[in-house]
Amino acid sequence: MKKPVVFFDFDNTITACDTFDGMLPLFSRTKRWITLERDWKKGRISSRECLAGQLQGLSLTRRSLDEYLSGIKLDPCFKDLLGLLRLKKIKTVVLSDNFDYILKSIFRNHGLPNLKFYCNQLSFKNGRMIAGFPLSGPECRICGHCKTRSLLAEAAGDEPIFYIGDGYSDSCPARYAQVVFAKGELSRLCQKRKIDFLPYRSLRDVYRYFNTRP
Ligand SMILES: [Mg+2]
Ligand SMILES: [Zn+2]
User: Fold this and answer.
1) Ligand 2 centre and the CA of 184: distance in Å?
2) Which ligand is nearest to the CA of 46?
3) 145 CA to centre of ligand 2 in angstroms
4) Centroid of ligand 2 to alpha carbon of 98 (angstroms)
5) Were both Cys, which of 55, 115, 122, 150 would link to 101 (CB 3.0–4.6 Å)?
6) pLDDT tens for residues 43-97?
7) In terms of pTM, does the model score above 0.85?
8) What total of structural domains would you count in the chain?
9) What is the CATH number of the domain that holds 43?
10) What is the dihedral of CA 49, 54, 59, 62, to 10 degrees?
11) What residues make up the domain containing 200?
12) Cα 51 to Cα 11: distance, rounded to the nearest angstrom
């Protein structure tokens, strides 16, 4: 049997909180981010529109962003789980609808510079942050970086697909996974859409799953 590929969502799956959503109440100039979030989840606007609008509404220097990011913690079992999967020679890929600058900083801060990830782009121009979506799926409104697009590209050899996530944007790629680990909003969405999933509370549960298998 082919080795599986394990895909991780980033925010609130690898990290102990939602890094981007956590920034919004702290640094937004107005409450517009709330309306954008609601409109996205109702399908009225795409993830790209939502994220670009929310980013535009932030009042935050690169320095205060770095400071905020330096306080972000990971799920306590993430590194152990990575080690276990590496030992079993199972490929791991991170699929995020957050931004490259944020993922890179957090992985660097935690001594994990070599993880493979796909996400959106963040650039700084005249003190402002600008969103870029080079990996969007033209048809997809759920993710800005279409996670399904990257997932199918990374598991193109028909490897069994494992997906671990917690949020609305994970409902796009979860449809293509053989095994879904879900918590939070993703588990509610899977229930509603009749997608089989294994509930998990933290990555410790996922670790146990892989540890008890050959
Ligand atoms: Mg998440
Ligand atoms: Zn998508």
Assistant:
1) 19
2) 2
3) 7
4) 13
5) 122
6) 999 999 999 999 999 999 999 999 999 999 999 999 999 999 999 999 999 999 9
7) yes
8) 1
9) 3.40.50.1000
10) -80
11) 5-211
12) 14
